[in-house]
């Protein structure tokens, strides 16, 4: 119908990233379709016209219903086992199969329709061994994990479909996304929240190294805003992958000490120590490698930048855990 607001479908809307992206989108004058295996929650005071869909997105019929008529599709789903457990048929089916099915479904649309925009959540693990310099997206891809290989395969499928005018694909490669947001009840399962829980329990924070390993950490709300920025500037971004990052590589030792001090400040308890311990035999090599990102290319095109300071993001995360009484 002419004049209708654009229809935006979110795949993986109930997930950690998807729930925050969905909450942001709900405040826009759009038609919003939030799709996932579990029922998604949306703000009660939403501006958007919201439709919540539940189902298995690995089933082509379900996926076709979810993206029917969509002008923009955010593909934020991933195998629930995480990147360490992706080397399974289930991991491949979610991380690659959904993209393959999506391309086939969109390829069957009438040619008169506007070519849909697909914004894909990719990963910096697609590069593999991180270079010594900050990554800017020009690096060769030599992934060393199953998850990185699967995401790279999916990204290449989207690029080929873009070249064939089936869709307009934009891939955002994410580093470590962390933290809790008031926009979502979905809990971060990453290292920052793990350490915050340990500190809340009065336990020391342990590192498998001397604390000088660096990571580019992006607060969850900033990561969500990057996807909305991609929706606003599709023409300049289509057909390529872009690195999203804070541009501020923090040492994990400093991050853990910040977590410990934030917990102490908000609870009144003594600051727990941050200590180095021997690494277990199963520790992956990537845990000892520093990764730095130069997000300038994406920033120049989209105007996006990570606006939340690390200290503020950690403070919000600890406050959210305390509010939920989530200490363990």
TrEMBL record:
<dbReference type="InterPro" id="IPR001509">
    <property type="entry name" value="Epimerase_deHydtase"/>
</dbReference>
<protein>
    <submittedName>
        <fullName>NAD-dependent epimerase/dehydratase</fullName>
    </submittedName>
</protein>
<dbReference type="InterPro" id="IPR036291">
    <property type="entry name" value="NAD(P)-bd_dom_sf"/>
</dbReference>
<feature type="domain" description="NAD-dependent epimerase/dehydratase">
    <location>
        <begin position="9"/>
        <end position="245"/>
    </location>
</feature>
<dbReference type="Pfam" id="PF01370">
    <property type="entry name" value="Epimerase"/>
</dbReference>
<keyword id="KW-0521">NADP</keyword>
<keyword id="KW-0119">Carbohydrate metabolism</keyword>
């Amino acid at each position: 119908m002419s004049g209708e607001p654009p229809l935006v479908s979110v795949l993986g809307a109930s997930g950690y990233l998807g729930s925050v992206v969905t909450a942001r989108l709900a405040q826009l004058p759009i038609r919003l379709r939030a799709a996932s295996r579990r029922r998604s929650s949306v703000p009660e005071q939403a501006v958007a016209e919201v439709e919540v869909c539940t189902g298995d997105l690995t089933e082509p019929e379900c996926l076709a219903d979810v993206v029917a008529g969509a002008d923009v599709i955010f593909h934020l789903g991933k195998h629930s086992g995480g990147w360490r457990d992706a080397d399974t048929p289930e991991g491949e089916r979610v991380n690659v199969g959904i993209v393959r099915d999506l391309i086939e479904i969109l390829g069957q649309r009438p040619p008169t329709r506007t070519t849909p925009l697909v914004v894909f959540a990719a990963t910096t693990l697609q590069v593999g061994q991180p270079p010594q310099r900050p990554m800017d997206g020009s690096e060769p891809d030599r992934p060393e994990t199953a998850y990185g290989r699967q995401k790279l395969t999916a990204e290449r499928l989207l690029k080929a479909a873009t070249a064939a005018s089936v869709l307009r694909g934009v891939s955002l490669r994410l580093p470590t996304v962390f933290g809790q947001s008031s926009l979502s009840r979905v809990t971060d399962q990453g290292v920052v929240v793990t350490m915050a829980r340990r500190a809340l329990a009065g336990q020391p924070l342990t590192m498998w190294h001397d604390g000088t390993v660096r990571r580019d950490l992006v607060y969850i709300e900033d990561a969500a805003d990057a996807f909305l920025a991609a929706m606003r500037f599709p023409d300049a971004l289509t057909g390529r992958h872009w690195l999203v990052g804070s541009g501020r590589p923090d040492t994990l030792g400093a991050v853990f000490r910040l977590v410990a001090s934030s917990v102490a400040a908000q609870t009144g308890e003594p600051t727990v120590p941050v200590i180095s311990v021997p690494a277990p035999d199963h520790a992956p090599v990537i845990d000892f490698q520093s990764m730095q990102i130069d997000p300038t290319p994406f920033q120049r095109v989209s105007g996006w930048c990570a606006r939340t300071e690390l200290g503020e993001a950690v403070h919000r995360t600890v406050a959210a855990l305390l509010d939920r009484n989530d200490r363990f």
